[in-house]
Write a structure and sequence with these properties.
YaeB-like fold; alpha+beta; 5-stranded mixed sheet; 90 residues
Length: 90
């Protein structure tokens, strides 16, 4: 099992998404956050399960139809680099 690290910019990405969702529904934002974190935890066990990323050396996990996690698999840990909307340029 690999340790999981969120880069600060990835945490900021998630916080921005949650702030946007919370404008309409704070409860939905809380559920969304819990769902994303639970899905990210799967990377600890199966980091190679998800697709090869568009940027060299990365991988991408679709965590919601509109959002992906971009991450590295290192020998000692999994590092979440960014969380992006699928319409955003990577």
């Amino acid at each position: 099992m690999h340790p999981l690290e969120w880069k600060p910019i990835a945490e900021e990405d998630l916080a921005g998404i949650l702030d946007f969702i919370a404008e309409d529904s704070p409860a939905s934002a809380e559920r969304f956050a819990a769902d994303i974190r639970a899905k990210a935890e799967k990377l600890r066990v199966h980091p190679e399960l998800f697709r090869v990323g568009r940027k060299r050396g990365t991988r991408e996990m679709v965590v919601h139809p509109n959002y992906i996690l971009i991450y590295w698999v290192l020998t000692t840990k999994v590092v979440i680099l960014r969380m992006k909307h699928t319409a955003q340029k990577i």
